[in-house]
Task: structure prediction
Amino acid sequence: MAFDVTPLPYADTALEPAVSANTLSFHHGKHHKAYIDKMNAAIEGTDLADKPMEEIIAAARGTNQGLFNNAAQSWNHGFYWHSLAEDGGTPTDELKSMIDSAFGSTEELLKQLQDRGAGHFASGWVWLAVKDGALTIEETHDGDTLADKDGVLPLLVIDLWEHAYYLDHQNARPAYLKAVTEGGKLNWGFAAENLARGTTWTYPA
Result:
């Protein structure tokens, strides 16, 4: 089984001005595809060839860094495309209650996502997740992922790698984070689906 790049769930102009069609053409069409192609090549003919991507990530963690990086980055990108939307809407009542309990308000959550994302050194990812029954902001470095982490349920993620924002915002990561979070591009419907399901999203086979 070979994996494919997940199709964008919106037009390539849908995230502007936070993320331009030009950025998506490189980020989705080239970066994500490169991770997928390298992972597919690495698992071909092995006992991982027919496994779900989440199992490949778990098997490669700590044992095969090259495969882990490409599989985890493939999963993270698939999750990231769904974490964004042209009109992300607003949190459901259940999510809003959890946000208020953990952060005081949606505005404070967005501020903390911006602050944690801007403060993350070098490349990585900033996540909204559920841990121990409460919302939390998590960070993973470089290609690391929450896809195979027990006890943590990812709801949304924002890519902090420079290729996610450099064509639009140059080195101003805070401007990108502000545009995504305050510009209505976080997909609260996707977050609600992940919360309701209660199990980690799976990359489509």
Observations:
- Residues 13 and 21 are 5 Å apart (CA to CA).
